[in-house]
Design goal:
78 residues, alpha+beta, two-stranded antiparallel ribbon, 13% helix, globular, GDCCVxC
Length: 78
C-alpha cells in the first residue's frame, strides 16, 4: 500500500504571522522562502530540513514518507 503524500502546506511567517498556501516541490528541498507581506526570508530551524518542516502546516514529502520507507526518507539526502 502506497502512502498518500500531501503536497499543499500553509506556511506561516514567524515575523508577521502572514499565512499562505503553497504547493511543496517533490524533487527538491526549499531552504528559503520570502514572506510576501513583510519580505522576511524564512530559513529552516536547526534540525529541520526545509522551510515546510519548520513553518508549514504539513512537513515536506520526504519526511511524510519516512515511516513508510522504514527510515529511508531522510529529507534531501543524496
Amino acid at each position: 500500500m502506497t502512502a498518500k503524500v500531501i503536497l499543499e502546506s500553509v506556511l506561516t511567517c514567524p515575523e508577521c504571522g502572514n499565512r499562505k498556501m503553497e504547493t511543496m516541490p517533490t524533487n527538491a528541498c526549499q531552504w528559503f522562502y520570502e514572506c510576501e507581506q513583510c519580505h522576511n526570508v524564512l530559513k529552516p530551524k536547526a534540525g529541520d530540513c526545509c522551510v515546510y518542516c519548520s513553518y508549514g502546516s504539513v512537513p515536506c514529502p520526504p519526511i511524510q514518507l519516512a515511516p513508510a520507507q522504514k527510515g529511508q526518507g531522510a529529507c534531501c539526502s543524496a
